[in-house]
Records
---
Amino acid sequence: MAKIDDLTLKVGRVYAQAERDIIQRIANRLRKDKTLSIEQWELRKLRELQTLRSGIEKQIVTKLDNFDEKELQPIIQELYNQGSKDAIADLRKVYNINEITTDFGKIDEATVANYTQALKDNLQGTHLRMVRQADDVYRQAVSRGVNTVLTGSGTRVEGSQRVLNEFANKGVTGFVDKSGRSWSLKTYAEMATRTTAARARIDGSLNRFQQNGEDLVVVSAHAESCPICDPWEGRILSISGKSEEYPSVSEAEADGLFHQNCSHGLTLWVEGLTTKPEPVDSTDNYQQRQQQRYNERQIRKWKRREAGAMTKDEARKAKNYRKKWQDKQKEFIEETGRYRKYEREQIKTAR
């Protein structure tokens, strides 16, 4: 799963950076022109909205489009090929290499193309919402800044900062998957990538098994399995669904296996010649992973707050909280002995 993890983290960092850049652009524009009257400031900020939107579209969104176009297909292809290689390795445990069909045909090409396009569509479907949400937040920040001054409750910067802080706390939101679950931008981009990449690798194996006349596979087991997948670990499944003895892959999927972000895979099952993995008690590991992910989200949150800070005091506050969560993460890793994934706490610019 290392290659899937690498791809997922790469996409996640790129989209997290886009989100951070949007917040920083809004902050930079709002903090300017402090000497203007509140009426003049409001008028100028609203006139600058189109410039802000255009900059986001031409620079941030265009980078994301280019990244999606250049990076996704080769990696989906590589993962599909890896699934095929895994299947061939399984088949070699049963057959002589000369008896195994390994030809890459139209079905394989179509599968790779379909998964690549599906991932592009999912990721690029976030771009318009990013622009619209930036537009809405900017308008709200201007309005709050004006109202804060007019009501005598603070400065325009303080009013605008409250709106920007609320935005930075959550990031770009409102992305809903097929099950109705709502995601933020980074987590949605990672979920879509991991789910699509994992399924491409699985299908690389399944297509090769079927090409060689094999129909039975067994579900893998790993130490961080979730409660949804636990009952399926080590279970034998039928690819075609024609088996009267075993449930089908489709039935397992309908029951929740291979859900979003699932890390399970399938290997060949031939009675007496291959072995089942032993299910692992993953309760503690799963809870620890959830806590680690939560800590990572808090670190990224305060990095966004740093990017959106319009005053030295706000920047100092965000920096202190970011360090606080980084220290918490360090303590958590030392207590549990888990591996700290610094790349999940970082962001990266699209090129």
---
Amino acid sequence: MTIPNKKVDGSSSANKVVLAMDAHGGDFGPAVTIPAALDVLNAQPGLNILLCGIREELDPILDDYKSNHRFKSCSQRLRVIEATHALASDARPVEALRRGKGSSLWLAIECVASGDADACVSAGSTAAMLALGVKLLGMLPGIERPALMSRIPSASGHTSLLDLGANLNVSADQLVQFAIMGSVASPLYDENEQPKVALLNVGHEDNKGDDLLKKAHAMLKKSPINYTGFIEGHDIFAGKADVAVCDGFSGNLILKSGEGLARMFFRHLELALSSGLLAKLGAMLAGPSLKCTLARFEPSKHNGAPLLGLRGVVVKSHGNADRNALGCAIVEAVVEAERQVPKLIETMVNEFSREVDL
């Protein structure tokens, strides 16, 4: 497995970072979380991981790696935090709050809240992560609700989209807060310290959209971020903005629709390239270029959605993430911890508050 080695302020990732990990999150649990954790530990020598889980379920898998020389080199940087149980992958907020204490997810977030860890990662229930994140970490001053953000491949490289479903109904103030958070977090992926931020609407004109969008638009024009105005759905994939802001309902639809369209396209491409001798020959000749192009759209490389707005770094992984994908989510959390994203967001919100009354 190849682990991305993102650079932050000229230093290599995982410079004395402690990460807490929900070992039971996702469809595959410890069978994937443990090898993914070991992969990143081997690639990032400054990283320490607190593996939160039920010891009886973790030990047999860990024992299998004890004879592996790669595991021996990093075993001192992996410590198990014993959990009493694990929350279901579809756990709702009420269940997480009532039954969550002592669970692997609760402990992972609690490690961040106590200062024992700099960030946490889970592939578990998004609703449960939201509920426990707010309860155990709390919200940053000036931020009303957390928002999920992820990268979508676009013509310019990628576009960061938020919110992805944490907030189905939002206010104009909250859209502004999402824009600020996205502006701070987006530069993690490139050298652009002034990302172009846009608001998703049904048209580009100032008079388009409902009153909520018009109000947010007017407020963002006065903000210290690089706000470029309204964009439409197709502009996201055209790369006309580095950060696209919308409510969670719209964001989730865009994300899921894009994933479905990509799967359909790849399936038709596969069928076309295997439809006959000439097609197979063409596929062979174009193979390296196709492989390079398709790699940009590989979902595992974009796994890891930060839950922005909390007083700590929390990263949500896809529930069906494999070993490679989960490794990318871990690296995402490490980079955010090194950049101290929550503090950067708080600073930007304070700067905006001096100009516009949130």
